[in-house]
C-alpha cells in the first residue's frame, strides 16, 4: 500500500482521475432521487471530469467548476429538481484547496469569494435546511483552506530541505574537487623538488664529464662517480617521498633534514661545480619537521636554479638563520651569465611560492640592483593549522 501511495505521488494525473471517478460514483447514490436522472448524470459528469485536471490547470478548472455550479443551481431551480444534491460538488472545495496549496492565497481568496456567492445563491433558491447546509459548507471550505495551508507549509519545508541538500552536495563535490587539486599540487611539488634537483646536477656533471673524457680522465671519472651518487640519493629520496604521498602526511612522518641536510645540499652542489658558501645560524635541528623540509627544499631549489642559469663561473651564498619567531633563508648568486643548459617551465619558483604559502611564510625573489639574483624567504616557527 505504501509503495502504491508513493507511486501515485509521482503521477498526479492518475491520482486526480481516481478522485474524479470516486466523486462520480458517490454522485450516483442520490441520482435515483432526481426528477431528471439524465440531467443529473450529465451534470455529474460535467462536475467530475474537470477534477481530473485540477493540478494541471488549477485556475482554469476552478472557474469552470464554479461556473458549472452556478448553472446547476439555476437549472435545478428552473426544473424544480432540488430533492437530489450533487455530492460531486465537493470538487469545489477540492479546487479551493488546490488553488491555496499550489497557486497562491490571492487566487484562492478570489475563488473563495465566488464560492460564497454561489453558496449564498444556492441557499436562497433552495429553501431546505439552510442552517445545516450553510454550516456544513462553511466548515468544509474552512477545512479545505486549512489543509491547503498545512500542505503548502509542508511543501515549502520540503523544498527548503531539498535546496539545502543540493547545496550540501555541491559543497561536498567542490570540497572533494579542491582536495584532489590540492593533492595533485602537493605531489607535483614534491616530485619536482626531488627530480628536478637531481637531474639538473646530473646533467651538469654529465656535460663536464663529456668535456673532460679525453683531456682529463680522472675528472671525468670523478664526475661519473658524482652522477651515480646523485642518482642513488635521488632515487632513495624519491622512494621516501612516494611512500609519504601514499599516506596522510603528518609532521612525524616528514623527514627531518636540519642543518646537516642543508649542508649536504651545499656539498652536492660544490661537487657539481657550483661554488657555494653556507652560513647557518641558530639551532635548526629541533624545529618542526615540515618547517625543516621547507627550508631544505627552498635551499635545494634555489641552488638548482643557480646551477642551471648562472653560468660556469657561478657562485652562491646561502644564509639560514633561526630567529626568535621564524627562520630566514636567503640565497644570492653572482648574476646571470649564459645558462649551462635550457629547459624547464619555471615550475621551481611556482613550487617554492606554493610551499611557502602553505607554511604561512613570505617569499621574495628577483634580480638585485647590483646584479645577481636573490631569493629571500621567512618561515614562521609556529603555524596556525
UniProtKB/TrEMBL annotation:
Domain Signal transduction histidine kinase subgroup 3 dimerisation and phosphoacceptor stretches: 183-248
Ranges for domain Histidine kinase/HSP90-like ATPase: 294-382
GO CC terms, sorted: membrane
Recorded catalytic activity of this chain's protein: ATP + protein L-histidine = ADP + protein N-phospho-L-histidine
Class of enzymatic activity (EC top level): transferase
Keyword Cytoplasm in record: no
Parts of the chain that traverse the membrane: 12-31, 37-53, 60-79, 85-103, 108-126, 132-148
Keywords of the record: ATP-binding, Kinase, Membrane, Nucleotide-binding, Phosphoprotein, Transferase, Transmembrane, Transmembrane helix, Two-component regulatory system
Protein name as annotated: histidine kinase
Amino acid at each position: 500500500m505504501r509503495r502504491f501511495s508513493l507511486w501515485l505521488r509521482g503521477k498526479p494525473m492518475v491520482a486526480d482521475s481516481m478522485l474524479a471517478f470516486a466523486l462520480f460514483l458517490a454522485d450516483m447514490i442520490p441520482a435515483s432521487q432526481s426528477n431528471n436522472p439524465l440531467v443529473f448524470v450529465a451534470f455529474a459528469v460535467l462536475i467530475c471530469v474537470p477534477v481530473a485536471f485540477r493540478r494541471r490547470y488549477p485556475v482554469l478548472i476552478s472557474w469552470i467548476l464554479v461556473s458549472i455550479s452556478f448553472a446547476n443551481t439555476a437549472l435545478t431551480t428552473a426544473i424544480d429538481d432540488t430533492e437530489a444534491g450533487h455530492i460531486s460538488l465537493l470538487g469545489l472545495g477540492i479546487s479551493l484547496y488546490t488553488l491555496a496549496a499550489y497557486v497562491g492565497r490571492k487566487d484562492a481568496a478570489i475563488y473563495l469569494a465566488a464560492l460564497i456567492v454561489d453558496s449564498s445563491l444556492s441557499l436562497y433558491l433552495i429553501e431546505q435546511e439552510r442552517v445545516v447546509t450553510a454550516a456544513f459548507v462553511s466548515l468544509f471550505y474552512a477545512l479545505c483552506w486549512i489543509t491547503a495551508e498545512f500542505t503548502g507549509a509542508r511543501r515549502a519545508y520540503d523544498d527548503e530541505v531539498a535546496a539545502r541538500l543540493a547545496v550540501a552536495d555541491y559543497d561536498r563535490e567542490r570540497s572533494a574537487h579542491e582536495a584532489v587539486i590540492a593533492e595533485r599540487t602537493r605531489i607535483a611539488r614534491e616530485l619536482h623538488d626531488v627530480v628536478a634537483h637531481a637531474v639538473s646536477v646530473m646533467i651538469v656533471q654529465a656535460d663536464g664529464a663529456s668535456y673532460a673524457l679525453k683531456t682529463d680522465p680522472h675528472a671525468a671519472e670523478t664526475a661519473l662517480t658524482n652522477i651515480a651518487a646523485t642518482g642513488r640519493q635521488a632515487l632513495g629520496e624519491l622512494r621516501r617521498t612516494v611512500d609519504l604521498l601514499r599516506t596522510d602526511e603528518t609532521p612525524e612522518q616528514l623527514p627531518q633534514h636540519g642543518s646537516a641536510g642543508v649542508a649536504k645540499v651545499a656539498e652536492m652542489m660544490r661537487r657539481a661545480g657550483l661554488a657555494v658558501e653556507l652560513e647557518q645560524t641558530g639551532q635548526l635541528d629541533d624545529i618542526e619537521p615540515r618547517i625543516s623540509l621547507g627550508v631544505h627544499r627552498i635551499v635545494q631549489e634555489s641552488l638548482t636554479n643557480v646551477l642551471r642559469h648562472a653560468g660556469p663561473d657561478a657562485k652562491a651564498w646561502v644564509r639560514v638563520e633561526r630567529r626568535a619567531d621564524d627562520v630566514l633563508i636567503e640565497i644570492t648568486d653572482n648574476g646571470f651569465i649564459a645558462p649551462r643548459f635550457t629547459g624547464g617551465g619555471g615550475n621551481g619558483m611556482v613550487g617554492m611560492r606554493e610551499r611557502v604559502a602553505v607554511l604561512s611564510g613570505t617569499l621574495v625573489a628577483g634580480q638585485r640592483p647590483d646584479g645577481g639574483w636573490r631569493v629571500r624567504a621567512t618561515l614562521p616557527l609556529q603555524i596556525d593549522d
